[in-house]
Amino acid sequence: MGVHKWRLVASLLLNLGFFLTNGLSTHNASTRPPIVNIGAIFTFESTIGKVAKVAMEQAVKDINANSTVLRGTELRLDMRSSNCSGFLGMVGALQFMESDTIAIIGPQSSVVAHIISHVANELQVPLLSFAATDPTLSNLQFPYFVRTTQSDLHQMNAVSEIVEFYSWREVIAIFIDDDYGRNGVLALDDALAAKRCRISYKVGIPPGPGFGRTEVMDILVKVALMESRVIVLHVYPEMGFLIFSVARYLGMMADGYVWIATDWLSSALDSSMPIPSEKMETMQGVVALRQHTPDSVAKRAFSSKWGKLTGSSFGLNSYGLYAYDTVWIIAHAIDKFFDQGGIVSFSNDSRLSSDGFADLHLDAMSIFNGGKLLLDNIWRSDFDGLTGRIKFGPDRNLINPAYDVINIIGTGFRTVGYWSNGSGLSTLTPENLHSKPVNRSGADQALHSVIWPGEVVTKPRGWVFPNNGKLLKIAVPLRVSYKEFVSQLPGTNMSKGFCIDVFVSAVNLLPYAVPYQFVPFGNGKENPSYTELVSLIAAGVFDGAIGDIAIVTNRTKIVDFTQPYAASGLVVVAPFKKMNTGAWAFLRPFSPTLWAVTAAFFLVVGIVVWILEHRINDEFRGTPKRQIITILWFSLSTLFFAHRENTASTLGRIVLLIWLFVVLIINSSYTASLTSILTVQQLTSPIKGINSLKKSNDRIGYQVGSFAERYLVDEIGIPESRLVALGTPDAYAEALRKGSKNGGVAAIVDERPYIELFLSNQCKFRVVGTEFTKSGWGFAFPRDSPLAVDLSTAILSLSENGDLQRIHDKWLIRSGCSTDNSELESDRLHLKSFWGLFLICGIACFIAIFIYFCQVFRRFRNVARSAVDSDGSRSRRIQTLLSIIDEKKDPRDKKRQKVERSISNDSADCETGNDSERR
């Protein structure tokens, strides 16, 4: 009995403990403090700060008035100004850590955010910034830093896509020299590099009041001397307006300039409208970005009551909307924090009370024990705010980043398009494109027309030649041969030639002046290497190169070429000899193979016709000698359609008809080819083209400095030991005259323009084969050089108006050799041109012979069956077969047999009738 009592007591105690534990847990989960404190650090008097202050105050009122959010807990916001000072911001953050603050909104400045984030990490207090856009504020480095606005990483991507959209390649960046400016421009540099663009010049402006109008003027004077005319401005509003004012004073807001401002300008305009007209005049034509916030009922309602909240003293910008939503992010996270049993409690950090920090009195600061849970709830936020959907992506940034592209014009601005991370530039709002598949192709990128500085609608070129007195260094090859293309005037720095005239004529067509000077390249003793010249352009030694520079693949990888101004390609030049019309000229129309096959078919057709006609045609019978003569005579006489023998069999006539058609074609072709040989001078060369050169072991010449050497080795596969470098046309002629076996070359491979000039006074050589490469000559410039594009347009204009041809005729037309109509190695007729005819004739002969022998063998079987009782030896059967083949068959036998068969049938019918009458 006692044992049962003890068991009962133990069971009651366990149940009571379980009930108390559950009851306590439930009590803790459902208990919410009456007040929860959050702090805010930002600059009250700044453009963003004064808007954010009103927005956050209103957000706190709306949250406390909404019983469904914190459900009985009052949200209390304590705001302190940092005055854009990192020190004051850190002090303010430390003060919040002493007052049981569970989250801090801010700071506004990226500089302050870098400092305070370290404090937030140590004390585990979430730090939510609605305005710090520095892309280096990473959640990996600062786990308790939460960016509730868009990062400048996305804004700089938008700027780079605008630059690419308008086909600009270089920009100048003017930025505030702090964490916000430097890191933003660093992100811009990376974004432009991904588009094959770059920042050509960076100007950092020190923050603080000590930088005035004089210093800004000094900076802009340097910028005006630069080549690029696309300027990206990433500063604070006060400095930005000063820069625009000075730029207008210096004439830098005129036609040809492009100003792109980041979202600092749109925020200032939104919060300060209307802006004085004199200030707006300094910004005409500027393109700016603004954080995009979708239109919604809540946003319109908040905007409508904004005037009452501020007394219409300033407007609402996008950062104010993000500040409002930031307070709601904290409220929703705190609500979930309490639902999950979170308790607002703090604990001291033992490290702050150690001997080293005792004199600083830091022990008043405490660690927020629920900071990690609250932070997790912040990251899981998902609701619709004034700025659209509030949700963080895997990278801990707000999803669907987007910007408006605005154009400052008149007394305000207009939206010319949108940029979003998914669709790029578009004239449609980003929310209309979210449901569509991502498409970033260039054809789908679009913006409305922009009115640029100077009130022009034509897209600015984006660059000019710098006004700092620097001349473009244009390299000119110092050639020792073919000086008609390019050469230097003795005793001067001037050059002349075909290429020089083309370049000068093209430059004269440009709508702007091009300051340049020619710089000779080469030692003057041999032609320079054009591959080396192109490499020096890529290395920045020269600003460009003009001359007979071939556009080949390995060169286009490191420099840009203009439109080709001369067609080029590799050809083979070899000696030739004239073919006289001697006694055996009549054999030249046909190749030996064609002669042999034609003769064989004459004999074959004669034999086939003889076989088919032998049994029934007396003209194909007789003694063996006569039959052989008949075969030869018949086959050869068909060549002239003069055969006397008539064919009696159907098969023989078919074969003869097809053969006569073949003979007709052969005769016509032979006559035409022989006429050409006898009337046109024929030239011949042992070299047929590049393929015959490759198969031989002969030596091949090429021009010093030409790309032909590497092409023959790398692409054709000719050993380098077979190549001979030659420098002048005289060296060409001498090497060709000697020949490969006597220390010269069998042929020369060079570009067609050189060869045409060489052959104009060297009449013993000719081009053999066909041109085996297709390329052209162009002017070379560094990668992405805008001058290459403009000169290409000018070269096309020269070609269309005929000036290019006139320059060509001036320098390159020579008439030293007679331009007769001689042909080099006129192709003789080969078997491949007639194999189809011979195939048809051969098939016809085979079918006829096959049918004939089928008839013979059928006759042979009938005879052998009737003589079954006679001698059936093998020799006897062969004799029977041969006798059948050789026997004379009268073609009238069939007709006689039919008549006899008809008479016998009539007699039989008569006898049958008489017998019936008798009966």
Automatic annotation (TrEMBL):
Acidic residues biased stretches: 908-919
Transmembrane segments: 594-612, 654-678, 834-853
One GO process term, biological-process aspect: cellular response to oxygen-containing compound
Keyword Nucleotide-binding: no
Subcellular location: Membrane
Record InterPro entries: ANF_lig-bd_rcpt, GABAb_receptor_plant_PBP1, Glu/Gly-bd, GPCR_3, Ionotropic_Glu_rcpt, Iontro_rcpt_C, Iontropic_Glu_rcpt_pln, Peripla_BP_I
Bilayer topology: Multi-pass membrane protein
Pfam families in alphabetical order: ANF_receptor, Lig_chan, Lig_chan-Glu_bd
Compositional bias ranges of the Basic and acidic residues kind: 889-903
Listed GO MF terms: G protein-coupled receptor activity; ligand-gated monoatomic ion channel activity
Nucleotide-binding found in the keyword field: no
Domain Ionotropic glutamate receptor C-terminal, residue spans: 473-814
GO cellular component term of the entry, any: membrane
Region forming the signal peptide: 1-23
Disulfide pairings: 763-817
Keywords: Disulfide bond, Glycoprotein, Ion channel, Ion transport, Ligand-gated ion channel, Membrane, Receptor, Signal, Transmembrane, Transmembrane helix, Transport
Family note: Belongs to the glutamate-gated ion channel (TC 1.A.10.1) family.
Function in brief: Glutamate-gated receptor that probably acts as non-selective cation channel.
Protein name stated in the entry: Glutamate receptor
